[in-house]
Write a structure and sequence with these properties.
Layout lengths: L2 H18 L15 E3 L2 E4 L6 E5 L5 E5 L17 E3 L2 E5 L4 E6 L5 E6 L8 E4 L2 E5 L4 E6 L10 E2 L9 E3 L2 E5 L4 E6 L11 E2 L9 E3 L2 E5 L4 E6 L5 E6 L9 E3 L2 E5 L4 E6 L11 E2 L9 E3 L2 E5 L4 E5 L6 E7 L9 E3 L2 E5 L5 E5 L5 E5 L3
Antiparallel strand pairs: 1-2, 2-3, 3-4, 5-6, 6-7, 7-8, 9-10, 10-11, 11-12, 13-14, 14-15, 15-16, 17-18, 18-19, 19-20, 21-22, 22-23, 23-24, 25-26, 26-27, 27-28, 29-30, 30-31, 31-32
C-alpha cells in the first residue's frame, strides 16, 4: 500500500472513530458499496474486495469479481456503488483501479488506473462514465473502450462522492469543502466559482428541479441553484451530515450523525415534521421510500419504517444484527440492505418484516 492509500485508510478509520465512537485498532479498508439491480441480477459486495452477481430468482451467485483464481487482482475494498449500462458493469476499487466488467460473466473488459483509492461510485451518461478519485481528480472514460474523454478535472481535495450528471453538466463534491459543476463534454468548470461549505463534503448531491441538495461535515444541508451554485437555503443539524439526501414529493429527507432523521420542505428548508425522528444510532446510509413508507437504516443495524408526512413509526423497528453504511436498493415495496457483515437483507416496507437474501461467506 502506498503512502497516499495508507493516509486515506487512516483518514477513513479515524473518521469512523469520530462518527460512531468506535474503538480498537485501525483495520484494513472495509467498503460500503450499495447493492444494484439490473435485469434479473443483484450486484452486491458479500465479501470484502469482491463484487458478486446474485440471481434474483434463485438467490445464487452466478459470478464473482475478481474470480477465485484471479490471484493477481486485489481490489482491497469496494466503497463506490457500481453502475450498469449496455451489458457492462462499471466499478471502482480502493486499489485505485476503475474496471468495466461484462454483466453476464464478470469478466474484465477494460481497466484504467487513477492516482489513488476510489471511494465514490461512477455515473454513466451518453457513452461516458465519470468517476472521482482520492487523487483529487474527476475522470471521464469512454464507456466502451475506457479511453479518456478529456484530461482529468482537478479539485483541491479528495473526491469521495459519486458524480451527478444532468443536462450536460457533471456535479461533484470534494473533501476540499467544495461543490463543482463541470462541463460533461469538455471537463471545464461551468460555475464562475465552486460552492464552498465550512466542512468537507463526502456526500453525493440530490437533484430536483433547478436545485442541488447536498450535506456536509459542517452539520449543514444546503440547497444550491444548479445553474450558479448560489445557496438558496441551508439547514443546520446537531452533527455531521454524511448521508446522501433523498428528495421525494417536495420534501428532502436526510439522516445525521446526531441520530436524527429530518424532513425539510425542498423549496424553503423549513421542517415538515413537528420534530425530527430519533434513531438509536448515527445514520450514514441514504433513506428510501418504498410502498409509501420512509425506510431508515442506522449504523447499528436498526431499521425503521416512518410515515413520510409525519415522521411517526408505521411499524416497530427491527434489528438486522449488523449495521448499515451502504445506501439501500429499492425494488417496488421492498428495500435491500447490504449490512456491514456482508449479508444482503430484504425488508418489506409495508410490514417491516426482514429476510436474508444472500449471506456473506
Amino acid at each position: 500500500m502506498n503512502v497516499r492509500s495508507a493516509a486515506l485508510l487512516l483518514g477513513l478509520s479515524l473518521l469512523g472513530l469520530l462518527l460512531f465512537s468506535a474503538c480498537g485498532q485501525i483495520a484494513g479498508p472495509q467498503g460500503w458499496a450499495a447493492p444494484v439491480a439490473v435485469d434479473n441480477t443483484i450486484l452486491v459486495t458479500l465479501e470484502r474486495g469482491k463484487l458478486s452477481a446474485i440471481d434474483q430468482q434463485t438467490n445464487q451467485e452466478t459470478w464473482q469479481f475478481p474470480s477465485k483464481d484471479a490471484k493477481k487482482i486485489d481490489l482491497k475494498a469496494i466503497y463506490g456503488t457500481p453502475v450498469t449500462g449496455d451489458g457492462r458493469v462499471y466499478v471502482g476499487a480502493f486499489d485505485g483501479t476503475f474496471y468495466a466488467l461484462d454483466l453476464a460473466t464478470g469478466e474484465a473488459l477494460w481497466q484504467q488506473e487513477t492516482g489513488a483509492a476510489i471511494i465514490g461510485g461512477a455515473a454513466l451518461a451518453d457513452g461516458t462514465v465519470y468517476v472521482g478519485s482520492s487523487d483529487n481528480k474527476l475522470y471521464a472514460f469512454d464507456a466502451a473502450s475506457g479511453a479518456s474523454r478529456w484530461p482529468p478535472f482537478e479539485a483541491q481535495g479528495d473526491i469521495w462522492s459519486t458524480p451527478l450528471v444532468d443536462q450536460g453538466t457533471v456535479y461533484v463534491t470534494s473533501m476540499d469543502k467544495r461543490v463543482y459543476a463541470v462541463d460533461a463534454a469538455t471537463g471545464q468548470a461551468k460555475w464562475s466559482k465552486p460552492f464552498k461549505a465550512d466542512g468537507a463534503i463526502p456526500t453525493t448531491p440530490a437533484l430536483a428541479g433547478d436545485r442541488l441538495y447536498v450535506g456536509a461535515l459542517d452539520n449543514r444541508l444546503y440547497a444550491l441553484d444548479k445553474a450558479t451554485g448560489e445557496v438558496a437555503w441551508s439547514f443546520k443539524a446537531d452533527n455531521w451530515i454524511w448521508c446522501d439526501p433523498l428528495v421525494a414529493d417536495g420534501a428532502v429527507y436526510v439522516g445525521g450523525l446526531d441520530h436524527h432523521v429530518y424532513a425539510l420542505d425542498a423549496a424553503t428548508g423549513e421542517p415538515r415534521w413537528a420534530k425530527p425522528f430519533p434513531a438509536k444510532a448515527p445514520i450514514r446510509a441514504r433513506l428510501a421510500v418504498a410502498g409509501g413508507v420512509l425506510v431508515v437504516a442506522d449504523h447499528d443495524g436498526h431499521v425503521y419504517g416512518l410515515d413520510p408526512a409525519t415522521g411517526q413509526e408505521r411499524w416497530p423497528s427491527i434489528a438486522l444484527g449488523s449495521g448499515v453504511l451502504a445506501n439501500p436498493l429499492v425494488m417496488e415495496n421492498e428495500v435491500f440492505l447490504n449490512a456491514r457483515n456482508g449479508d444482503l437483507m430484504r425488508v418489506d416496507a409495508e410490514t417491516g418484516s426482514s429476510s436474508l437474501v444472500a449471506a456473506a461467506p
